Amino acid sequence: MKLRDLLVKIGGTIDPASSAECEITGIASLHDALLGDLSFLANAKYTKQVETTRASAVLVHKDFAGKAPDTAVLIRVDSPDKAFAAAVPLFTLPPIVRKPGVHPTAVIGENVTLGKDVYIGPYAVIGDGAVIGDRTVIEAHVVVAEECVLAEDVHLYPMVSIRERCRLGKRVTIHNGSVIGADGYGYATSITAEGIKIDKIPQLGIVEIEDDVEIGANTTIDRARFGATKIGCNTKIDNLVQIGHNVRTGPCCGIVSQVGIAGSTHLGTGVMLWGKVGVAGHLTIADGVEVLANAGVPGDLRVPGQYIGSPAVPKREALRLFHMPRTVENLQKEVAELRAQLQALQSNQKSSES
Q1: Element containing residue 349 per DSSP (H, E)
Q2: SS3 220
Q3: pLDDT at position 61 over 80
Q4: Which of 33, 86, 230, 278 has an alpha carbon within 20 to 30 A of 205's alpha carbon?
Q5: What is the 8-class DSSP label of residue 15?
């Protein structure tokens, strides 16, 4: 594909303009790119790689001030991420498309409602009374339990389990092995004449997932003890995340790998939890909070901004605390030097008096 044709599809301006006839044949990272490849710079951390890349063209922000080799054309765009995402389908194989139909090995319960152009794959199980929306794709070995409701254009990848009565909105995507609606952790402990007795607390609620949510592989979202565990629209959840019962997230949240959120915690709009963040139960996380990787959140975070550490504190405060030992060490050195100077002055004074 000529670069000029690519620009029609993704936008942007090129530097130098005379390179519009450059041939683009593939896509690759800055480090791995070869002649003919398109690459991109979205993180300033990799700016140096632009200077040495072998790519024929590199997507950069319109204000990019760096340099590229003479063999590479810079394509200046508002968002390199978005432009690259638009370019990828032009150079990759098309996605697998499932033709509507029910595989003969699938098990369909009684009183199931199937919408138009639904695909149900090998050995999938659809429980009694379930409702499956138009154009939904249910891959092999998926279980959709009794009385679940799936809206239009849902895609469930192999081995996903949706437990009874849970509800999924439009265009929800759930990747391999995730479990939606398993019982949350709830037990009552008592001491009797026979010893310690542990009784399971019934988990009577459901999970509700709103429109345009995507959930990664092997993630678990527990059903509510009562009412509903709710995932807000446009929220994106990574692999290996645990969300406890009665948790609620606002719209447009991001929850990254190995995050754990304990029961009844509420996340506001646009909350971002990076890898391995742990959030205690019954908390409120305000709109616009971003908790950085490995942080522990034991209490409410009611002010928007970045938080870090365990316990999590505002990033500015954390950096101050991080540098405090070095500051104290420097002060100790200064005090020692001042003491030495004072002692020298006192010795000189005594010598002159004598």
Answers
A1: helix 315-353
A2: strand
A3: yes
A4: 278
A5: E
